[in-house]
Each structure stands twice: as C-alpha cells, then as structure tokens.
Design brief:
D-amino Acid Aminotransferase, Chain A, domain 1, about 30% helix, 10 helices, five-stranded mixed β-sheet, alpha+beta, globular, 14 strands, five-stranded antiparallel β-sheet, Dna Ligase, domain 1, Rossmann fold
C-alpha cells in the first residue's frame, strides 16, 4: 500500500525560489510507486495552497483546514529560511502530532540563528570565526566602526543572523563600505553578524540520521565569485562541485568529529549539511554554519555528498521519510 506524503514548499522567506527548485527536484526523484504525494505551496503572502502543477503553480486551491494531513505518513517541509527552517512550522507539526522530515523545533531555531549557533557550539569547544552582533533598534555606526576595527578587522563579512543561501551576505573590504552593507543585511533580519574573514577553503559535509547518523565525505564548491554567494550557488555556470576533495586524513577526521559533535550538541535529527573553513596557513578547522534543511536542487551539495557514498537521491528521500517516523 502506498504511503501518503505531503511535500510543502515555497514560503515567505527570501529563499522562496530556492525552495521551489528543491521541491521540483524531490518530486522528480521520489519513488511514486511507494508514495501518494500531495503538494502544498505556501505563497509569498503566507497562504497555503493545494498544488497540482509544481512547474507552473497554477490551479491553486486555498487550504483552510488541516484535513489534507489526514492519514499522512509524514510531511516533507522543503522550506528554507524563515518560517520554514527556523522551528516555526515544525512547531505546527508538533501540535498537530504529525511526523515530519528534519530537525525539531529547538534544533532548527538555534541552527537558524548564527549568533545562537556560535554561543552554543563555543560552549563545547568548536572553533568558529570571531564575530560581533548588532541589532537594528540599537545600531550605532560610529560604535560599530570602532568595534570592527578593534575586534574583527577588514575584510569582514556582513550577514543577517537568520537567513541562508548567502542572501544578504556581503564581503566588506573597507570601513566606507560597512554601513551600506549593514543596512542591506537589515533588510533580511533585525540582527546582523559581522564576522572575521577566514582565509581558506570552504568545505561541506553531510549528516544523515538520528541517534547514530551516517556522515558523508567532504565536498567543496569552487565558486566563480569571490565567495560562495547566492548567484554562485544557483545561477553561476562557473561553480564546480567536487566530492570527495583532496585533504589529509587528519583534516577529514577533524571535520567529521566536529560535524558529529555539532549535530549531537544541537540534538539534530534527520539531516543537516555542515559547512567548515580550512584555514590556508595553519589547516585549522572553523565551523561556518549548520543547515537543517539544505538545498535539494539537482546541483545542491547535500544529495551529491550522499550519492558519492552510494546513497542515491531516491534512496536518500526514502531514508529521510523513514527517519521522520522514528
């Protein structure tokens, strides 16, 4: 008997379009002989709609109750960013007692906020880039200029504290550029992180599972841009995905140990993609961020990492669905 699966995509975050692309890929590869699939499209206004054509998003029927979840085996919320990857929609599923793919409320919320991630992971000794955080309602340019010069230096990165897909993130080379880029980041969140620049390689590793997760080998995306921007992730033809990469066994083991420690410290479940920097001169490892619902497009790193170790896209989906029930 086929299992009833609800795939939710879209959402009100700045990663709306990325979510659509991810959902299109999952729908392409999911085993339709095993699952009855219903699609819920959350539009940019926050309306929930039953969708029959994911490629055109037409013939939408507005959803006004929870009957669509009746006899639902699990929900796959392929939502990135705010209101999807930050614990809010996970809270809805918890209240309705509906199984769902991915991390729980607290894990999602902490991993989504870059400052809280740093605070929690610093407590268990995971090395991360130095940073300062500023809030929109108390932002003072002169004070910020002084703190950046004293504690961070240039170049540095300006990031919305809550966000993903490198949206709103910019590399700043001089204090004259600081205010403009802080104001840009404030468009996406009321809290902004200013982070030191780690000169090195940005690499990624995937985690799959609950109590005893499987960890992939390490991958790297050679970006056409100065850093791995939104354009480099989803639009550039110059970005190249490499899995596995040429690193020492010692470095790989250190990345793997830190990834597992971060995953377990945040009590993640189901899946996560964890990004690290390898510092050029010292080979020191710095954790960059944890993505609790990484991209699932055909060029996204997470499915590529597991395909590399023999877990193909359709099998990966099956495993995530079953993990959601445990």
């Amino acid at each position: 008997m086929k299992k009833n699966i609800v795939i939710i995509f879209g959402g009100q975050s700045s990663e709306h379009e990325v979510s659509i692309k991810s959902a299109q890929s999952v729908l392409k590869f999911i085993n339709k002989d095993k699952y009855n699939i219903k699609l819920i499209y959350i539009d940019k206004k926050g309306n929930w709609n039953l969708c029959t054509n994911i490629n055109k998003l037409d013939n939408l029927v507005k959803i006004t109750d929870t009957k669509i979840f009746d006899n639902c085996y699990t929900v796959f919320p392929i939502l990135h960013g705010k209101n999807g990857e930050d614990g809010k929609i996970q809270g809805i599923f918890e209240m309705l007692n509906i199984p769902y793919v991915g991390c729980n409320v607290i894990s999602s919320a902490i991993a989504m906020d870059k400052e809280f991630t740093k605070i929690v992971l610093n407590s268990v000794g995971i090395k991360q880039a130095k940073y300062i955080s500023i809030k929109k309602n108390s932002y003072n340019l002169n004070e910020t200029l002084i703190k950046v010069k004293k504690e961070i230096g240039y170049p540095c990165f300006i990031k919305p504290s809550n966000g993903g897909s490198s949206i709103g993130i910019n590399k700043v080379y001089h204090e004259k550029e600081l205010n403009k880029n802080i104001e840009e980041a404030f468009k996406y969140d009321n809290k902004v992180i200013i982070e030191e620049c780690i000169y090195g390689r940005e690499v990624e590793i995937g985690v799959l599972g609950n109590e005893n997760p499987v960890i992939s080998r390490v991958g790297e995306i050679i970006a056409g841009d100065d850093f791995y921007s939104y354009e480099a992730k989803y639009e550039s033809k110059e970005s190249i995905v490499k899995v596995p990469i040429n690193i020492s066994e010692k470095t790989y083991n250190l990345i793997k140990e830190n990834a597992l420690l971060a995953y377990q410290t945040l009590e993640c479940r189901g899946l996560a993609r964890i990004d690290f920097f390898i510092q050029n001169e010292t080979n020191e490892i710095y954790l960059n961020e944890i993505n609790t619902m990484p991209g699932f497009t055909n060029i996204s790193m997470y499915p590529v990492l597991f395909s590399d170790i023999g877990i193909k896209y359709d099998v990966l989906i099956d495993k995530l669905i079953e993990l959601s029930r445990k």
